[in-house]
User: Fold this.
Amino acid sequence: MSKVYFVPWKQNTDMVGKFKKALKNSNILDNINKGDKVAVKVHVGEYKNTSHVHPLYIKELVSMLLEKGSEPFLTDTTSYYCGNRFTAVGMIKNAFYHGFSYANIGAPFIVLDGLGNGEGFPVKVSEPLNEIYVPELFKEIDKMIVFSHCKGHALASFGGSIKNVAMGCVTKKSKLAMHKFVNFCYDETLCDGCDACTEMCDREIPKIKNGKRILSLEKREDCMHCPGCMEACTKGAVKLSELEKLQHVLPIAVEGIFKILGKENVTSINWGANIVEFCDCMPFPGSRIKDNIGIYLSKDIVAIDKAFLDDAEKNTFMFDGRPDPEIQMLQGERIGIGKLEYERIVL
Assistant:
């Protein structure tokens, strides 16, 4: 049975201080040794997003890693969508804007996939994903701490540690491949050529001809099947289906990362606060859908997400047709990246 350490959220208390004590009183950093190159996987948020993990928590974690004589650095991969985080330069600027600077945190921010166009190296994983592409920098990392903000997600329903690693530790090629498991549906008879989808798409994929969107004119291989078109279309001509397929492949991507680093060298921290509708990739992440719950720490990436989901109640995330978020954990246990059963230790 895996251990999940839990710090209940209490308003009007020093939660940063409680987190620092939890790091000391738990055993999750016991495997960090002097000289270890430690990647702290974070999501600094798209520009103007205010719901991401507060940098003060990252600062306390980095301070403890430095005390142990390791060499920590903050990191993430560039996004597939064309926001600020599409390039390394834009991502580093975002990190600075949102308080994740070296001066503030005490560790540098290093983009995993270079300037943003590195293909990485292939790693074989289970079906149906079969293969992921991992940034070359992973070959030099000794340990990784995955610091995740627990929140909703338009396609994956819920984003925690599993999604943070799956989508955040691979190159653009694999991000696109995973998103394409979601089925894109278009009913031409409902389209009135209003241009809403063309205005929404930052890749300029939709093409309108003679008052209709014409799929045959589009570069379909570039489309990541994001919900942008569907949300923009007021006529219901565009829909996404089979969202649960993305849930199944996310843990498979984690399997690949564990093959490189070793499952025992990855630690997870889930920040169960600012629990909002959408992921940190959105500049405006929507309304809060749950009160702050607490902070979770574990060596098991499946157990930690399951513990949070048990407390938050999975139905919280299953609105607007979003699939069962527990699929991620069930699949994760099935392929051996973690266990569903856990022991909760309240700190």
